[in-house]
Model the fold of this input.
Amino acid sequence: MPLKLPDRLPAIELLKQENIFVASRVHGGLQHIRPLRIAILNLMPLKVTTETDLIRLLSNTPLQIEICLMTLNSHTPKHTPAEHMRMFYTDFEALADNEFDGLIVTGAPVEMLAFEDVDYWDELTRIFSWSRTHVRSTLYICWAAQAGLYYHYGIPKYPLPKKMFGIFRQHTLHAQLPIFRGFDDVFDMPHSRHTELRREDILRREELTLIAESAESGVSMIMARGGREFFITGHLEYAPTTLDEEYRRDLGKRTDVEMPRHYYVDDNASNPPLVTWRAHANLLFSNWINYYVSHANDSIA
Done:
């Protein structure tokens, strides 16, 4: 089944070039089953890049999915044309009466600020609260994972002595969970962050289950409320070149830029990236949809 996307969304043509089957709302509306409704609250600066990365992964399922791109009233993106936002995004207040099968909240480049100092924190926490009664399962990514854990469970974040930047080997701690169906015992995950969560804080809260971690990059996945909430500290959705683009963007602009670890062939930045996370990224998003988002007989709240 195809994804149902807003007409003329740039990701449609980009993904068709990768032979990924997507459909506009006009085409998708001709099919006579209710699609799963997944909202994406995209807080990343480069909206089109993040849209494409997530839609690529959401396409890997036989279920029909309708994507709704959500934005905030209290924040105006600086790196995405206003016309793109008007055409493809709907603000939260206009969606607040709707129910969704799934919600994805992306990271944001604000991790060095205290949560309460983020200019859209009040509206964001209203969405976090709303998700508890209007969404079947929510996936929080990177900074959003830290923000969600802080808001819902009081888990703090901590500054790192240097950026956690690269591809890091993760270990599954609860391999029997459906989210890990088909996973190997270890899997790789991209990380790009200046702050961390600490294992002992997670384990102190009985509502939280630490389900994957790394000896090198620390806490990577937490589950709560029986899978109604997942918190992922890395970026399985990243395209192969994302860390390379970030690295070369920052070279010469800052003195603390280090090459992403375990990323380039032979750890040589003159070589191309070695992609080791794509299969597990597809599995994780498919499992999330199949086992946590698409439980048609479960109530949302």
